């Protein structure tokens, strides 16, 4: 009994050490939040940074949701926490955990430079799994909560791969390491159809590019350069919203960001500050990048304790290579579906980076039986998007949303999360 009391006190003290008492600019809040590091490889000095927010109410009953942003190499705190989910909105439905993964992203780090040479999908998933096992030891009160993983962009790799690690490990692990995983939520035709590229370029790409090949070669690579350059004046991640501009009205979204298919980095270099009372601000990434490099903010979040030799950025500048990335996640999705893991896939229908059309083509290859045909779903009296339900998988589009769905359509994103964790179908009629 005395041993249990000591263990409880040790856990409590460790949690309190991570508790964020106040944050510069933060209003008074009724919920608790925690931030800090969890070591995933002690010999190499690898540690991942997290930020955790308790639900606004019913903390003991609400599920735990892990949010991952993609890249590879982009921050779940810079995008997911700061610019998309909240915490003031989504935590109505869940306890929210944001993880900067892999090392080299945001505040997460390694003390072994050779780690970067072997960094890829597999090491990212392995480190994220070890993070979760150790995080639950620090916060054991959440071990029995239903656990869900969600995210966006290259998290289409991260989410199912981490889920697979958990699914496989749960078969043979001890009770202490068991994770109560319940579910995951995780281009050319589109650009032509939305008048971004010319008929000639569309036809040339269709004739010259075989995307089943690892390297389609020339002239395809040259044509794809032209394809990505077509997006230079606009935001590929949200075709119909403004871009961040400088004082002269020139777009500050450099073309390098969209030149390569695998480059999911989304930066903005404008340093203006605007007083935006409401609505979408295309320069919001600038503000958070300044904020997370402030020493007082880092101290409040227990971050950058090792004094990393580079600035916090939305997407990592120190990750230069990526050693492994399977071309398809379909085998992993099939495995999870067959294992009874709930799978939802969502897509903003104005996202030119990972468009609805590409996702629909991909999901068709799973060969799943259709349980509910393609139909609209509603947010009150308006269509929120469309969905189709397969045996074991639900695909949802969000009407008018870009790449970062919660940024553009927060109400619909909250509705999506609430129905996902409750395992309820989205409303098929106005209400």
Describe this structure in words.
With 431 residues, the protein is of the alpha/beta class. Among the domains are: 233 residues, Rossmann fold (3-Layer(aba) Sandwich); 29 residues, no CATH class. It contains 13 helices and ten strands. Strands 1-2-4-3-5-6-7-10-9-8 form a ten-stranded mixed β-sheet, with helices on both faces. A hairpin with a 2-residue loop joins strand 9 and strand 10. Helix 2 crosses helix 8 and helix 4 crosses helix 10. About 10% of the residues have low confidence.
In short:
This protein is of the alpha/beta class and 431 residues long.
Total strands: the figure is 10
State the secondary-structure class: alpha/beta
User: Residue share in helices?
Assistant: 25-40%
User: What's the CATH topology label of the domain at 1-182 and 281-331?
Assistant: Rossmann fold
Terminal Cα span? 54 Å
Counting copies of identical and different chains, the oligomeric state is: single chain
Strand content: 15-25%
Shape: globular
Q: Supply the CATH class of the domain at 1-182 and 281-331.
A: Alpha Beta
Discrete helix count: 13
CATH architecture of the domain at 1-182 and 281-331: 3-Layer(aba) Sandwich
Rg, rounded, reads 21 Å
Low-confidence stretches: 187-195, 247-280
Order of helical and strand elements: HEEEHEHEHEHHHHHHEHEEEHH
What would the average pLDDT be, to the nearest integer?
Answer: 82
The H-level CATH homologous superfamily of the domain at 1-182 and 281-331, spelled out, is Alpha/Beta hydrolase fold, catalytic domain
């Amino acid at each position: 009994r005395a041993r249990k009391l000591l263990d409880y006190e040790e856990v409590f003290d460790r949690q309190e050490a991570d508790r964020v008492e106040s944050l510069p600019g933060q209003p008074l809040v009724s919920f608790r939040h925690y931030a800090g590091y969890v070591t995933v490889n002690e010999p190499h000095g690898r540690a991942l940074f997290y930020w955790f927010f308790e639900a606004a109410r019913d903390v003991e009953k609400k599920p735990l949701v892990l949010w991952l942003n993609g890249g590879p190499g982009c921050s779940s705190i810079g995008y997911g926490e700061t610019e998309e989910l909240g915490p003031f909105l989504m935590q109505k439905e869940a306890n929210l955990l944001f993880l900067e993964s892999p090392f080299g992203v945001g505040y997460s780090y390694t003390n072994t430079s050779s780690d970067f040479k072997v960094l890829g999908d597999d090491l990212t998933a392995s480190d994220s799994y070890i993070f979760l096992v150790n995080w639950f030891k620090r916060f054991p009160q959440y071990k029995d909560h239903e656990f869900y993983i969600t995210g966006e962009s290259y998290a289409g790799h991260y989410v199912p791969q981490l889920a697979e690690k958990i699914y496989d490990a749960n078969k043979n692990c001890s009770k202490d390491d068991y994770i109560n995983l319940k579910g995951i939520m995780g281009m050319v035709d589109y650009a032509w159809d939305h008048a971004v590229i010319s008929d000639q370029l569309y036809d040339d790409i269709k004739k010259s590019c075989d995307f089943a090949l690892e390297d389609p070669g020339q002239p395809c690579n040259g044509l794809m350069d032209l394809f990505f350059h077509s997006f230079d004046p606009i935001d590929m991640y949200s075709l119909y919203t403004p871009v961040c501009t400088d004082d002269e009205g020139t777009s500050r979204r450099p073309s390098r960001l969209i030149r390569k298919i695998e480059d999911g980095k989304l930066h903005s270099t404008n340093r203006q500050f605007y007083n935006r009372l409401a609505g979408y601000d295309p320069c919001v990434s600038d503000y958070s990048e300044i904020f997370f490099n402030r020493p007082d903010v880092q101290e409040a979040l227990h971050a950058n304790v090792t004094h990393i030799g580079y600035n916090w950025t939305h997407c990592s500048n120190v990750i230069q290579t990526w050693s492994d990335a399977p071309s398809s996640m379909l085998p992993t999705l099939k495995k999870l579906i067959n294992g009874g893991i709930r799978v939802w896939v969502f897509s903003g229908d104005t996202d030119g980076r990972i468009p609805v059309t590409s996702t629909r083509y991909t999901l068709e290859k799973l060969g799943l039986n259709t349980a509910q045909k393609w139909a609209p779903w509603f947010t009150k009296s308006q269509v929120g998007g469309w969905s189709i339900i397969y045996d074991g998988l639900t695909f949802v589009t969000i009407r008018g949303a870009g790449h970062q769905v919660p940024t553009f359509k927060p109400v619909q994103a909250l509705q999506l999360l609430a129905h996902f964790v409750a395992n309820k179908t989205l409303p098929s009629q106005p209400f």
